[in-house]
Amino acid sequence: MSVLIVGSTALDSIKTPKTENPRLLGGSASHAAVAASFFSPVKLIGVVGEDFPRRYLRLYKRHGINLEGLQVRPGNTFHWSGEYEANMNNRRTLLTELGVFETFTPTLPTAHRETPFVLLANIAPSLQHHVLDQMRRPRFVVADTMDLWLNIALEELLRLLKRIDGFVLNDSEAQQLTKEANVFTALCKLHKLGPKYVIIKKGSHGSILSGPKGIFICPAYPLPRVMDPTGAGDSFVGGMMGYLAGARGSIDTHIRRAMIYGSVVASFCCEGFGLKRTTKLKRAQIEQRMKELEKLTRF
Amino acid sequence: MSVLIVGSTALDSIKTPKTENPRLLGGSASHAAVAASFFSPVKLIGVVGEDFPRRYLRLYKRHGINLEGLQVRPGNTFHWSGEYEANMNNRRTLLTELGVFETFTPTLPTAHRETPFVLLANIAPSLQHHVLDQMRRPRFVVADTMDLWLNIALEELLRLLKRIDGFVLNDSEAQQLTKEANVFTALCKLHKLGPKYVIIKKGSHGSILSGPKGIFICPAYPLPRVMDPTGAGDSFVGGMMGYLAGARGSIDTHIRRAMIYGSVVASFCCEGFGLKRTTKLKRAQIEQRMKELEKLTRF
Predict the structure, then answer these.
(1) Does the distance separating the beta carbons of A216 and B222 come in below 8 Å?
(2) Which stretches in chain B have pLDDT values below 50?
(3) At B1, is the secondary structure helix, strand, or coil?
(4) What strand order describes the sheet that includes A117-120?
(5) In chain A, which residue's Cα lies nearest the Cα of B295?
């Protein structure tokens, strides 16, 4: 089955103490779509400007990503620029130019409206709602978010949580939303807001799922060197949704393995700037790390 | 087989925003010894003053802990007092009265010198050396430490690392010692200092082992409520060494399960002040959480 992914499609300029990487392909939907593409057909919903490099359109296509829902509008593509500190943990935003993203309305091609799996990657909750409004009985809907929306669109986000099956957020966002430092107490509180499945991402410490079958402690793949963590969270949730869409059987049967696959794709994402490493990935390399993670956690 | 444990034996006064708990049984060796006692016979090496409550001696004995190596000296028992913030993560020391600990020289009863498993729990590296000097060809020696010794006894600690099989420290200490924020790079650097097995503790994020059989990602047991994390790290390493001493076969065969058992005992430790919860523990309850951890991590 296929997965529909809506989110930001951007150009990222990423500075580290050692290098500058201008205008990389980025955005939550780009990372999630490429990650999902290793496991199932992907339909991308987004917007880019006239400046969007053709090579990035070719890159999407090489991954078999359906671009019928990608709008090309007069103006510039959303451009984000950020700088990482030497430890690659702290980053600060240098510049945000919304460009064509400012007036983006995600309108779905008719054929897209029956896609069974929907990933509402990080984007304004109002746009996530707008996509959901157009869908016809999707089988499994997951939303990601970021601290910005907790600050400026909390009401819409809370309303969204009642409409989705799964909610993915990182530990600091979970703490901000629930006022609860303990991850497991935060998970309980998050369920009460609506979603049956809640996943808290903890970066290099892995992630925690709480769902109908209880808690799952999902490890991160060990990386001795992180080049650029931008998009790792999007790759994680994209890989997970791609795997779920490609698997037969119930969500509960597959969601743990799906998270591990997400974790593996996210690890590759961290090993290159932007999508550079992820786009060179072969399925066999994913399976290799999958097996390694099994060995690294077996006792 | 039995395990010899040296470390601090103290009275801990622990304040939280809600309660005060004066003069609890504490110290690295007390926590480690009680944790180890669930799995194998323990010989405790330490010192207490004349003020040491008899009920704590009875408590050690109830756990079958051999007290031949516990010195009772004129003066007061080492007394530590600390205060936790509401989130139970940040603590500050209010008071440290060394008492009889100031002049402690760990002299081993002759019969103790052939104990096969040795845990040098957190204590001054010079005393850890002194214990090792008295041992006759121990099979497996593990040392724990704390930031204080990195600051004031680094040279002796580095010399100790060349004499032990396993080294256990927490993530911030590993970063301080190696100047490396990445856990996996830090592990490589720590091996170069001597130990064949290195374990980095990450609190509620679990722990990571690096050894001859590679990396092991060890989860922490999920706790929705932490009452008092004092001694959790000591319980972890104590439980691990107790399990290893009680297991037949090679270290490599058992160390992963040993860490999981340590993790489980540490989780109980966090659920009560001082050793209050740990001392009420039954082996069946440990096995129950062990099984749960298997379920929580299986994929």
Answers:
(1) no
(2) none
(3) coil
(4) A66-73, A42-49, A3-6, A117-120, A140-144, A166-170, A197-201, A207-211, A214-218
(5) A216
